[in-house]
Design brief:
single chain, 436 residues, alpha+beta, 43% helix
Amino acid sequence: MECSHVKGLSPMFEKTFHFCPVGLAHVSIDGSFIRVNKKLCDFLGYAEKELTKLTFQELTAPEYLDEDLDYLENLLKGNIDTYSLEKRYIRRDGEYVWAQLTVSLVRDKSNNPDYFISVVEDIDDKKRIQSELFQIDALFSKIVSAFSDRTFIWVATPDLSKMQYVNDGYENIFGRNEYELYCHPMRFLDYVHEDDKARVLNVFNRRPLQNWDIQYRIYDSKGEIKYLHDRGSLLFDDRERESRILGTADDITREKVQQQALMSAVTKLEHLSKTDSLTGLANRREIFSQLSDEIARMDRGQQTSTLVYIDLNKFKEINDKYGHKLGDKALVTFSESMSQLLRDSDRFGRIGGDEFVILLYGTSGKEAEAFFERAAQCKFQIKVSESEVVPIEYSVGWVEWHEDITSVQEWLDRADEEMYGKKHCRQAEAIIDKAV
């Protein structure tokens, strides 16, 4: 039943009450709804006649009822004039919904409690979003924690004057306490490797600061070098003003070490694929590739070169008499001795057994002849024992490149023929000298 004070309301008040954009109710001292507006009916899912037969106690979620009643008791005692709290109501369909409740007490002419005025604001969407944000924040904290072993995450003011958040990644990677960053936000830059520091400072000293993505090295507290992949973003508020800076630096030391090891292995493998394992000279495939490049160069009209074919004399006799170990030593010794006579621009390779090839870069046939006359003055020998030295003799033939040579193999064959021709001549001369 309505209280006398709320009867005979003016038409303007009636419209204001019923069309107010928030829920309004006059509630009796015992908690019964006296008057309710349309907004409150819609919020709670009841028709007006249904709602005025209920009490707020019946519609209040149990966990909030005691708090609500305590406030009402203080209102009735005059300890407070009004109160406000967030609470959950039970809708007609059984769903729980959030509202911001504000209550004040109306007294009669004798100052006795007459009825309550309740303002019920629908905040269900707001609370749901807050709950989702809380869950997201909790999830984000877990994610950040999970990455702390190898990722340093920080948040600072736009001018980098104040650090607002630092995760455990700083201590895990740098081996230093995060407190120093709260005192000096950019202190981590002090530990950047000296060879990378100028480049890194150039990024962080820019004004205005821009998004960054760089890699650099740092020293941890033990003096060990670590590699970081550092990325940063500017965060903006709803007015498109810079509000924060987010930085994330991943420890990529392990990946860098693995990458360097892989590159070293690839380089070594590439070297082995081009190198004769015994002498360290270019192998057959590599020397063919170099000769092919050289022909292409000379085809462009550049200075010609001379190809030399070398065969060691009596190499089989060395193997048979002294063993293969000394034979291998003879090959290595010859390779090292001949290499010392060559220029950096020349090419030297072993094509098999005791056969070698030399490319005398930009050298004519006559110049090649002069070169081997000088080489003949050098000693090529191996020491077998304190009293025995075995000379390493060789036969050599060369062909200066000219345009009618069509391939590497043809050039090599011609030099081989020249070498064997000279070798047979010397053998014949030796036989004649012996006979005489």
